[in-house]
Amino acid sequence: MSTPRRVLVIGGGASGNAVTVLLRRAGLAVDLIEARPDWNATTGSGITLQGNALRVLRELGVWEQVEESGFAFGSLGVIAPDGTLLHQAEDFQTGGDDLPATLGMQRPQLQRILIDAVRACGADVRLGATVETLEQDASGVSVRFSDGTTGRYDLVIAADGLNSATRDAIGITDKPEPTGMAIWRTAAPRPTGMVRTDLAYGGPAYIAGYCPTSENTIYAYVVEKCRDRASIAPASYADEMRRLAQGYGGFWAEITPHITDPERVNYTWFDKLLVEGSWHRGRVVLVGDAAHCCPPTLAQGAAMSLEDALVLAELLAGDKAWGDELFQEYYDRRIPRVRAVVEASVQLGQWQLDGVRDADVPGLFGRTMTMLKELP
Fold first, then answer.
1. Which of 315, 301, 59 is nearest to 183 (CA)?
2. To the nearest whole number, what is the mean pLDDT of the chain?
3. C-alpha angle 187/296/16, rounded to 5°?
4. Residues lower than pLDDT 50 in the chain
5. Which of 24, 54, 154, 350 has its CA at a distance of 20 to 30 angstroms from the CA of residue 270?
6. Going along the chain, which residue ranges are E strands?
7. Structural domains of the chain, ranges and CATH numbers in brackets
8. Alpha helical stretches, state H, 61-206
9. Mind listing the pLDDT tens digit for each residue in 299-357?
């Protein structure tokens, strides 16, 4: 009986967890390492998952848990800063007619569901570990870990995020760049009657929005021009977000009083990244934010990462030899779709930064979402 191919996945976020489950299902031996001892199981406020992300989660076998934990809805509201509804649009069902258009959920809950799936699939998981060195040859990769142990792998998948150390280690020099916007996020109780995402454009910030994440919770966010992070004391995060949020009406009147704990408020710059040419060097391949990221203006960051995992696992489980041709096929399948999402997400923000009043936001949004209805 032949020994199964052995894969190392670096990073236990959405793409790393997903590709681990899918490769184990295909019969491969998989080690997953995650730098954080807590496996990021408590970090974050909320996440918006559109249908094409839900489609991958269904393929992973976790859709029922996600559906039970989250809050599904099918429309998007555009409101004035005072809370007046200006327009309600039906969301695109990018995952097909049998899945919700959109589902919000608490980000830690999604991570816990994916962690359970990884544990159940039989992968070897090591937390609090990082890669110190990678040495490649024609047949595989020799790895030395931060605890002094070593391993030999047929393939290494770098799912270690936006500031990927693996990307640097294999000589890919692309770096994330700030777009000029930043976002304040926090979790809060769900006001009675809130059943979808509403977005307010203008007012004290560029965008103020919220998303139901369960029957009882939401996450709320305010987008403004990015500031020097060193100039904002973490102890003032709640005060800063509350100051901006107080300029908005409607449900914000119920949300704002809950913005009191600075440790529950997150402040993050919007970044953009798109690695061009290929997402591999030898037998090390990038997935997710290590290869690309975009502002959340289309809520497609997690979806693109999950789709990467699905496509890469499909190719690795097939009959083709593992090598440059297969890894380039992975890139060629993903890059048109990912580029369209990154460019559209950045453009939506740039129009606001530039104060463009007649921008074709509905057209750009519609073209991108129509494209995403196609299978990755």
1. 301
2. 97
3. 85
4. 1
5. 54
6. 6-10, 29-34, 47-50, 71-73, 75-79, 85-90, 102-105, 124-127, 131-136, 141-145, 150-153, 155-158, 177-189, 197-201, 207-212, 217-225, 265-274, 280-281, 284-286, 292-293
7. 6-176+272-372 (3.50.50.60)
8. 63-69, 107-121, 165-169
9. 999 999 999 999 999 999 999 999 999 999 999 999 999 999 999 999 999 999 999 99
